[in-house]
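Key idea: predict the complex, not the pieces.
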Amino acid sequence: MEDASPIYPADPWEVRETRFDPISARRSESIFALGNGYLGMRGTFEEGLEPLASSSARGTYLNGFYESAPIRYPEEAYGLARTGQTLVNVSDGQPIELRVEGERLAPGRGELEAYERRLDLRSGTLTRTLTWRSPTGRRVSLVIERLVSLRRREVAAIRYRVTAAGEPRDGPLEVELRSWLDGRVSNQAGGGDPRAGGMVGGSVLRTLAQSVDGRRLSLTQRTHASGLALACAAEHRLAAGPEAAPEAQQEPGTPGVRLAAWLEPGKSLVLEKTLAYVDSREVPEWALAERAAELAEAAAEAGFEALAREQRAALKAYWQRADIVVDGDDGIQQALRFGLFQLCQGVGRDGRASIAAKGLSGPGYDGHLFWDAELYVLPALLAGHPELARGMLLHRVRALDAARARAAELGHAGALYPWRTITGEEASSFFPAGTAQVHIDADIAYALERYLAATADDSLLWQGGLAMLVETARFWLSRGTFVARRGGAFCLHTVTGPDEYTAMVDNNTYTNLMARGHLRFAADTVARLQGQERFAEIAGELALTDDEVASWREAAERMALPFDTELGIHAQDDGFLDKEPWDPTTIPPERRPLLLHYHPLDIYRRQVLKQPDVVLAVYLREAEFSRAEARRDYQYYERLTTHDSSLSPCVHGIVAARLGRVEEAVGYLRTTARIDLDDINRNVEDGLHTAAMGGAVLGVLHGLAGMRVVATAAASAAAGADEPAAAASGEPLLSFVPRLPAAWRGYRFRLAFRGRLLEVAADREETGYRLLEGGAMSLLHRLEPVALTPGERASRPNGPRLRAVLFDLDGVLTDTAEYHYRAWQALADRLGVPFDRQVNEALRGVGRMASLERILARADRSYDAEEKARLADEKNRHYQELIESITPGDLLPGIPQLLAELQRAGLKLAVASASRNAPAVVRRLGIEDAVDVVVDAGAVVRGKPDPEVFQAAAEALGVLDEDCLGVEDAEAGVAAILGAGMAAVGVGGERVSAAHRVVEDTADLDLALLRDAFARAHGGP
Amino acid sequence: MEDASPIYPADPWEVRETRFDPISARRSESIFALGNGYLGMRGTFEEGLEPLASSSARGTYLNGFYESAPIRYPEEAYGLARTGQTLVNVSDGQPIELRVEGERLAPGRGELEAYERRLDLRSGTLTRTLTWRSPTGRRVSLVIERLVSLRRREVAAIRYRVTAAGEPRDGPLEVELRSWLDGRVSNQAGGGDPRAGGMVGGSVLRTLAQSVDGRRLSLTQRTHASGLALACAAEHRLAAGPEAAPEAQQEPGTPGVRLAAWLEPGKSLVLEKTLAYVDSREVPEWALAERAAELAEAAAEAGFEALAREQRAALKAYWQRADIVVDGDDGIQQALRFGLFQLCQGVGRDGRASIAAKGLSGPGYDGHLFWDAELYVLPALLAGHPELARGMLLHRVRALDAARARAAELGHAGALYPWRTITGEEASSFFPAGTAQVHIDADIAYALERYLAATADDSLLWQGGLAMLVETARFWLSRGTFVARRGGAFCLHTVTGPDEYTAMVDNNTYTNLMARGHLRFAADTVARLQGQERFAEIAGELALTDDEVASWREAAERMALPFDTELGIHAQDDGFLDKEPWDPTTIPPERRPLLLHYHPLDIYRRQVLKQPDVVLAVYLREAEFSRAEARRDYQYYERLTTHDSSLSPCVHGIVAARLGRVEEAVGYLRTTARIDLDDINRNVEDGLHTAAMGGAVLGVLHGLAGMRVVATAAASAAAGADEPAAAASGEPLLSFVPRLPAAWRGYRFRLAFRGRLLEVAADREETGYRLLEGGAMSLLHRLEPVALTPGERASRPNGPRLRAVLFDLDGVLTDTAEYHYRAWQALADRLGVPFDRQVNEALRGVGRMASLERILARADRSYDAEEKARLADEKNRHYQELIESITPGDLLPGIPQLLAELQRAGLKLAVASASRNAPAVVRRLGIEDAVDVVVDAGAVVRGKPDPEVFQAAAEALGVLDEDCLGVEDAEAGVAAILGAGMAAVGVGGERVSAAHRVVEDTADLDLALLRDAFARAHGGP
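Result:
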């Protein structure tokens, strides 16, 4: 969706609406929600929407404060989740009602002459500005400000300013404010959309006590089933205007106060309502009311102005490290900041809670915590605020016992985390798309791995993280099995991967790869800590043995990974590729999302994805994929993906960026970032999409900026001889491949990494790296090392640079093409199949079996697979005999000189050949030392024109594809080079005219010509 | 379970209990249930069990009379079943309460001096005989009889006889009877066991009208949601004893009457209570009460005695055709009759209803109709009473529109029948084990196919059966897909087969085979009817084209069938064999059935079966399996099957019997037949297991008697030259292979078949066939034709008879063993691998690749698969050159004479060889004409010692395995012959000593020796 006509005007630091529309009121209530990780309040109006109350969904939440109810199944089974959990809509502290001359401010009453609502992302304050003409004709202007304090987790405050308009001759105006706490709240009940929430509907709070004492209100309530209690206290202060005596108003469940005054025209009455919420998880029930009153009083004494100052300071500190600046795209800029602001508001602190799918902004998904907290939100927060990521992990650590109990209930060892939960117990009531998603364990371990890589903070391991890691790792061994008939592969049967449009399958590639990573990380961590005293103690408690750790490594090594050699792609699972493909573009918009319009069986039986599965693994476990596999996997699954999940577009964007598809990436980034502000999925009314907020941040960091944390080994390889200092120390390295969308001027962000703070700023030309805090470090820019010293800025160009030349062998370095021809001709003659040099031309760059197929296509009988294998073998043996006679003298004209010139220029060289005999030929040609890498057909899945052999060569050289140039004499070969995004030089005229430069003869090749081709490839003349 | 201590004593014609135990009251209430296909009454006591009422589950049912309620899911999705349905527990007509001197007959009050309850399977009457001493010390004896009329579908009757005991001096006894209709009934609510039912719990009937008029009671009620109404009327008659004036008793919902009298000692009071039920599906609501009263009155006028006579006559007609007589096993005899009786009571008539999983005997499975009606009950009734089978099919035909709507809802063409239902709408609320069982369509079509084969009653097709067949056939084409990467195989993805311990899999073998059979049957039926006028009309309405029918055939031909060539078995589905096997014998009894003690995912991820899946296909689609496959499939899956479903043991028993495993079969038959009377699954209290009742009947007919209906083509082949008359006419043929368990003396039954009535009686020696009705016919006995003329009895021996001799080739007919040796020696010499004649000895009977493996085991290097293929090829080409020189002179000594002797004796001859060159050798030996069949290694999946090659030869000859004798010179070959259950003759002394007779030399072979070996094999001297 383009942001040509956004719902909320694009502004870098605020979200604003200038018109009130009851139709979209619920959406705005989510957008304008405020919170601080503990207390959340939807952006409802203080006065409510009566008589349009049903257009509004009021909501106040305390993170993790839940009500439970038994889950009833129409058909029972053992081990189904038993306890439904819902984030409780608690006592409503917002209500303030205005009456002017006895007339209530309400929709449809009088006239709203001006309206604006504005969320300021720097001040953290929501401001509503109104001008209202009452039914009696009197005009007042209102400025209503609200904040939920980021410094005082229990506190929220409202400043309500009424100004009488008009001339002095109009006389004083009778103004009345009623303010109360509303305990008669209820939870929404479930409807047809499983995403909207509603496990425990209706009224769930019972009032234990309420009081009105002057301007002080208090309300204590308790849930029916979970037994949690809370108190809400409100303190009122008249900050300006005539004094007004408070009048107590007590209805059951709604302690309130009434303030009435006469206002002269031009004068204002300013009421500050300060709220405090505390709950029984940290304060004993008997002390709740008193504690809430103390907190409210203290905040009220400080006054709204002081609270607002605190708020601005807290946000300044947050933005200092979290902000992402985009130059050239206001829509994305605004959305990124809005998302970062909402993440800050939604995430629990210090391990008390994590972040729900909707944060604290609405009832959607019942306020449950899912895997996206770990995979989408956590890494986004980790970039700037590792302490928030730590709290999220600590929250999981604290739920370890529940996960152990769940694993035991299901007959497994170790711990299995719930698919969705508040309490730590499984609350997913449809196990095929819930409990079957056992990848949750690996997802949490992955987040822990990323956290440790970015912070080196082992203290979390000693605080329970190690036990969590071990218990989740051991789960896999009891859930999976080594299968003899698959060569002893470790298989995970009957699981569901992230793509919920396919359920209960065998060997889901994502799950298996994540489990592999999990098992290796666990084994590595155990090995790393083994010497330490505290380790021995914990390992003892866990009864962890060396044998068990060895079994983790074995399962990881032998993990089943379904792969289709024909297509050269990973199968989503064992059976996926057999299913009927379903092209999402053929599905009409009114039948989306599929989950609301097609029976699960009709979806499961087809190749169609809700969200990335293999592609998510490409992102998260990049090292498991060759560049060619990553490209093909992305291309194959992208066209089957509906993006019906808000978790989907961002991942596609990140992978697209890494594959160099920058404009596609920015399209996905826009959809992700603006999913809430543009209400793209049409369900913002149920709450905001926190995963998309995180995903948008990752879209810039991991996508456009190509940021990764790479292991030292990989980093050393990439860095080649210039091994950076950090690599030697064993620390992981930051790596960037920044890319810029065509319409952008630049972007910048900061990164906390292992005690350092780094600023990364990319513009159209280059990327600057500046170390703001911490000691010297190295990083990789486009796979090349950059050393940073404190305070200093290092910059590197973003564009491609010729770093490597990849040669085809046959017809480029030597004329083995002639030997091939002779061997084929001999075979064809023996079989009596017509063949000549002209037919042979068409075989350039074509692999052995494919060449044979083309030759046999002219035969007068068919050959079975066994015969073909024998024939190919026959030809090859003949060819091998012929090439025995090759010597350095067989290098084509000009090649020796060219290789020497390229070597002198410091370029890396590789041979990328369709022949399996390439290494032998290179040896006989005597250029073994000149060439850094030889990649032959045996190392790749798909031959030319698939770019794989060239990509494999570039990967082996540790060079980006776009920093390479390939030289080819075959049409298929040139296509392969171009497909890899490399510059191409063709040898042989017309045939290879698609290349950036073409020569007739190898003697015409020199570095200048190659550089020219490279420049042309990348937009040069 | 052995019937050593049965709950109910084994008696051929009755079920009796002599002790009342409240603990097991609910079980007996199911066992003693009465019904007539429309009205069912549980075997509760008229007076109830107050104060132990909770030990009782009263129930009165009208077949198909249901209440509905929305199904609520904790997590919603599109297309889930919306409407829960429950067979309603309707107005209770039983209540009669006895008071003696004001004291109520009730458990724990006074003393029960004698107690007996007896269900007479010939009279269809339930009789309770009591002697009770009241708390006041007075003794009465009671005889309470009850019947639900098989001739008057609305009517039930109770005869209640009270006799005052004691001496005349005890004086007259005050006796009071209160009788009423109880409308305050309710349905049971669901609990933890999904099999128990309870979709719509609580009170579902509202009373519309009630009346008491003298001795006439009437009650009219209506359900809340489904809107169905019923009336129940009762008429009371004093058949003996002092007159007693009726006194009306009216409480809301319970119209009643009170009768009191003084009884002299020795005198009796006999009250006849006659009930009639009618409902609004056939009688308008306003007329219900009147119609019920009329029917009750007419029945009351006839009197209990007349009703009992009618009942006996009706049952006599039923037993005439349905009875199965077992001589030598009282437990099974009683259980078979009990089952047949209950099927008669439970099945609806004339298409108005079919039969629920529990018949009309209890609330289990909510009174729903499942597939087992078609596959277990229908064929059992079809044997004796095709008209009942017809009614069941007609009921499905009438639900076609609902099935069409369901297919459309799920995005498919045609019709998809519901997995479970009363109304025709899907009521399964767990789709992975419900709607995913799309095999239901094929199951119904299969039943139709069987019905037509047995009756030739095309009228059902014209009455909607053809539309049903076409619409369900076309469903498959839209549900499945041709998969290019599997060679264009037609695949059915994401289905669940009968084994509900595995769900949502791809290409479930059962489903695919049944769909194949369905598509072929539909196409054949269309082809058969195509000329007829009515066909054109119906085809037009259905828009059926030739192309569509052609697509059915194509899908059937190309149906994917996962098969494991290593194990030689069908895989239950694409992924099944990879899963972790779970041996049911390792699961403790207290954790069974698995579905109540393990999470579905923990079950689904393993190889463990609830009930047969592939094995069910072996039974139903026998022609799809070679004998060897059937044997191996059975053996493989049998050890993984828990039999947690009551549908399981009977199928295993049938297949075991067909495989000749008679004692295993009778064990399964016993479990099946006595599942209710011995309460084997401990849930009889919820109702009887109708599928097991049908399964027990089939266990005798299709299992022990080996009955099949075979297509003419197959029959002709089997019959060989002696083609029976019927075969020529195109009619299907009955075929029997009767087997007798060791402890049985015999069994007999009758069969209705295409207008004939046949009696089949097997004893220890022979089976007699008698045509009781209809014209001359042929049938097959042990694959040999038997011609029957009306009235005449034909008998044939049951035991094996030598009909065919199967020869190994190498070393038996000729010495190709020498050529093999020479070819191997040459290869071994070339490779430098040690080899000699002694090593060669071990290769007898071993296939080519396996022989090569053994030779290469001594090589000093390893060979890859490609090399091995080449070496095997090399040896074979050499061997083929060597055998070019074979002539008839190479037949081993005595062989020409032996073959001639066997031919003269009319024996069939075959060559069963491990060599792929066998046909060529046979030709060169000049015995091509003498040998009927040559089976070589190319035709089989597994070589010797697997019996497959010998079984394949026997099958090709159209002879039972046990009627064959094999001649072998190799140990593995003898093992293969014995494994096939054949007689074996060994050539070569010690090496083949496992054979029944051994000769040193082929010259020693003659017919007498072969006959001797055959006799020894089958228990001879």
